[in-house]
Amino acid sequence: MTSHVRRRAREGFAGVEPALDLICPLHLTVGPRGIIRHVGPTLRRLHPDLIWEGSAFFDLFEICRPNDISSTNDLRAASGKRLHLRMRGMPEIGLKGVAAAYSDGAIIDLSFGIEAVNAITTFDLTSRDFSPTDLTIEMLYLLEAKTLVMDELRTANLRLRDDKLAAEQKASTDALTGLWNRRALNTLMHDSVAAANDVALIYLDLDHFKEINDHYGHDTGDRILQHTAEVLVAETRRADIVARFGGDEFVVLMHQPKSAADAIKVVERILGRLNCPICVSGKKLAVSGSIGVAWSPNYDKPTIEHLRTYADRALYAAKDAGRGTYALHQPGEIITKPCD
Amino acid sequence: MHGLVNRAIQGFVEDTYGRERWLEVTRRVALGFTDFDTMIDYSTEQTETLLDAISIALDKPKEAALEDIGTYLVTHPNLGPLRRLLRFGGETFLDFLLSLDDLPGRARMAVPDLDVPDLQLKALGPRRYSLVCDSPLKGYGYVVLGLLRGMADDYGALVLMDIRSGQGKSEVIDIVLVDLEFSEGRSFDLARTEKGA
């Protein structure tokens, strides 16, 4: 190439470079031997101390895809194709690019693509570093707006979940005692027996509760029901289900007690504690209860309905036998025993 | 009205005057609930009633309350992210003003069913602009006014603004840019590196 032609080529680049700086601030131009002639203002910020002009393009950049580009001629041949490249020594910032054959060299325009956030933090860029038509700023805006909306949605979802749990809790709890209510108990009992574990079903009925209520008033009656609930919760394990079935009837479903004797020990403790007088509105009151027990291993694959019938029968037998008595239902017989 | 709007109004009362004052407002309008949900639509009438009740509870004219809401939206730390989103409008307060045309579009990008009323900026002369705020919710212009005051501070610009009635339900804000670099303003980085923003 004559010096005359080379000079004209350089002048051709020089004419377009100020315009490119405005429109494509991430561009650079390279001459026929792969030497950088000019760099856009934003691209320069990636490496402010480097003397870009005169450096070899392929020393500074690695073209990852297509992988067969190693000269200006290759770049010119790849005009218009999507290029993936990185600056050497900056593996974390992926760049997208496009080359265009121009004069005797090439113009290469670059973009951060989806790694814009990373690049903006690393190089401390502002919106002035991007062309007004570049959608990078819109992308950042959208990213941030979406994060905000997602956070808001997540908060709303958590609130809904809490509300749902609270509503469920309310629907399945006995307001006076805080125990499970009848509705919840039915579901829980089915689940427990369906799991085919050994259970002891305990029915408790307070003795002469109606008379206490009539004589001392409902507030006193309520306090006794609460006291009974406290005793039941205290004497059972966390895994056991304690429910108020309605009125002065309580149900305990013991999960896997070691033996029937073990369940009976709990029953005796419950009746014993109920017998201890408590102080209600300045009066000392003792309330006793009757208990009927059904122990699932006593039967062959019992359903919950069977167990309920057995516990109910045992409870009636206990009541017949007098106050403060418990009864264990067994196939063919009911064993009653007064509490000591 | 989008739940985000009502929730923002709730946030304004709670963050500025406390939860107790907010509960007082909800009792006054007999809402039947105490917290607005961000993702549910409420009627425009309900929002109007709510704003009337706030005006009474705070003992200030409705216009002043609306302006306070606008400023709250861009100055309270709890809404730092919103302020950031607005700063994407440009590098200076003037850039920001000129980007207000884009605001409804930008809002839709984030929340497709959020209907942000149109704002039309007219240049009246060097440094003088008027902004027409057209909304089904009367007094919307006062919210925008408060918001612009907050953003002018944020950019560190000295701006004179006044509001008057326009055609129909619209309101017009007259804007005079006195000094775009009056004070330092608050910093803004494109990528989120600010603490607590």
From TrEMBL, chain A:
It holds the Pfam family GGDEF. GO terms for molecular function: catalytic activity. Residues 197-331 form the GGDEF domain. InterPro entries: DGC-Regulatory_Protein (IPR052163), GGDEF_dom (IPR000160), HNOB_dom_associated_sf (IPR042463), Nucleotide_cyclase (IPR029787), Rev_trsase/Diguanyl_cyclase (IPR043128). SMART domains: GGDEF. NCBIfam families: GGDEF. This is Diguanylate cyclase (GGDEF) domain-containing protein. It comes from Poseidonocella pacifica.
From TrEMBL, chain B:
This is Haem-NO-binding. InterPro entries: H-NOX_domain_sf, Heme_NO-bd, NO_sig/Golgi_transp_ligand-bd. Residues 2-156 form the Heme NO-binding domain. Coiled coil: none annotated. One of its GO terms (molecular function) is heme binding. It comes from the Bacteria. It comes from Poseidonocella pacifica.
